[in-house]
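Backbone shape codes:
***
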Amino acid sequence: MKLAHLADLHLGFRQFDRQTPKGTNQREADVADVFRRAIDDVIEQHPDLIVIAGDIFHSVRPTNAAILFCFQQLQRLRSSLRETPVVAIAGNHDTPRSTETGTILRLYEALGVEIAVDVPKRLVFPKIDCAVLAVPHQAVAREDLPALRPEPGGPTRNVLVIHGHPPGLGEERGTLEYGGAILSREMISPEKWDYVALGHYHSTKAVAANAWYAGALEYLPPNPWGQLQEEAEQRGGKTGKGYLLVELPGARVTFRPIAPARRHLDLPPIQGAGLNAKQLDAAIAERVKKAKIDDQVVRLLVWDVERATARDLDHAAIRASKSRALNFHLDLRRPAAVRDATAGAIPGGRRQPLPETVRDFLTRRPLDAELNRQTFVRLGVEYLEAAARAEELA
């Protein structure tokens, strides 16, 4: 039996100011495009079971365009693989904060997709001799969650689909997305299942031989740069997003990469200690010259930059780089002594700068569908940067 495990689609996610010719946020279009490619690949692989482990949408109130796009892709999946069950659960982004607010996910039941929205749902598929326990975010967040175990005397194969994270996962790199429920090993008990399909953590990661996070299909907050580093360490320098194909029994897991719409480029960092503004300008220009930054998402990290040096940089050249890339983030870090004194630095002083922390928080904060997220995020960061400039001039 072959199982396809996807998670954290975050359809409707928006970031940066670039628009497509049709007026859609470019990053929203990127996320949609990658999901379309993933559906293409799933159809080609022809699995016996498909599970989506939560956070189908980035907001509990997605736009009509995101709702329709998801419907079209799931309909394409169901019509191409008519005998293949599709099971999806609600993640924290799909779950209303108020019980009075509904969720759009039940719309997709009309396509024959099995949806678990608020309570655990046990599904039995006799044709593939498999039972699935689908446990949405809201069920895990409750104090009275029942024991998550296969039922005795049931099918030969048992799969758990659940959304949350173990304590501490991703905290060191800042790659843990807050808002998820805590999943202890005792709670999921991987040894009792043939496979545990996890959602919420945006990097592909095994927590047991048969318990995996599929990861998101795109680089999303928090800290995509930390996700790149984690991927490179786990895959011998290779990076990229995708989904998982799992053969049961035995939980033989294969990562299926999905080509991104654009790359996230983390340029080689610069040590700025002892450099004046002219020398640092030359170092920045050299890094940019060696990379193909056009239409990509780019970060250049510069350590130990004095405030006066940062002020005297060639900002026209920096703006030129920003105009070429989809987003060019020149991440200037203050000297370690200043960071330690002002930011309560973690070991090594490598904390994500405050503007990026605010940007990540506002990017994932639930919003009403009628609000423009990119304007919301841009204004929040601009207000913060304006306050910082006022403090420098004081």
Summary: The CA atoms of residues 354 and 384 lie 9 Å apart. The chain has eleven helices and 15 strands. The two ends are 67 Å apart (CA to CA).
